[in-house]
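>> received
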Amino acid sequence: MPDELPIETKEEFWPGGAIKARFQVLRRADDSSVRHGVYESFHPNGRAAQQGRYQYGEPVGTWVRWDDSGQVAFEGAPADDSGFEPDPGSWDDPIEPASPVGPARPWGVWTAELTVVLALAWLPYLVYALVSLVANAQYAGMDEYFVQEVADLDFLLAELPMLVGHLQVLFPMLYICWRSDLSWRQLGLVRPSASGLLLIGPLLGAVALGADVLLVHLFRPEPAPHFVYLPTTSMAWSVLVLSLVFNSLAEELVWRGFVLQRLKQMSGSAGFALAVSTLLFAAYHIYQGIGHTLLVALTGLLFGASVLLTKRLWPAVVAHTMYNIIVMSPLSEQLYPPVATP
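>> returned
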């Protein structure tokens, strides 16, 4: 990122003529600009409101915010205070997306990245879902799925490959995200806040689970026959919970992180990006039957809308994990209609 490109100072003013903000921008060769350097804003009475620095469109370092009486209201990294954004409208949506200075990446690169992500995190699971659907066709006369408790060792032998599979998606995805022109902030991977982890996430999970339970009781969608294996010991449950956590991390990073933001960038439409990413996410749950796949799509829409509104991925990760754990726990027997057993 060549620092020799010209840096300009810009000013904004309140309607009465008092200065509102003074900040620096880096002028690119294509005449676009991005905030880069000192940022200062002021209250209408002339007192300092906030001060900090931008680096290629991202707030960095320590920011200070004052109230209109001159008292310090906040000092620290902006992400440490989930209720404070240093420059509304420019922190989450800078003049230009936080990307290397220079021409925008070509569509060919974006398409290639999406192709790799889908080959890694979508196609194998879709094939598995379709194969499972065919393999369980022999139970087509049954109208429920099968819950089966298995021995500790048998469960571990079945679940450990699933855990490894989640990690095989998660770590390559982190590398792809790091190498892409999407910033961690654009992907929603900012420092998690206590409110996001302990309040918004559980609330979102409760809404998703509540909607799922209500619709199942109202419409009784017929699931495709498939098996659900439950652990019987604390060690096996620990492995299951760990597997579900990494499953949520991987799926949210793929669908509500990278794919959602890349499609939004390419199409210019958040609604289109949300619809397509949700459709792809729901497709490899087809082994659960059409009705339950639609319920998965509803959950994906809720999680995606949350990420678009909060610009943070962590609440969706917490909600996804909470949802999966409850569905796999004995509590599900109290929430959902009875299921058949072998």
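>> The chain has nine helices and eight strands.
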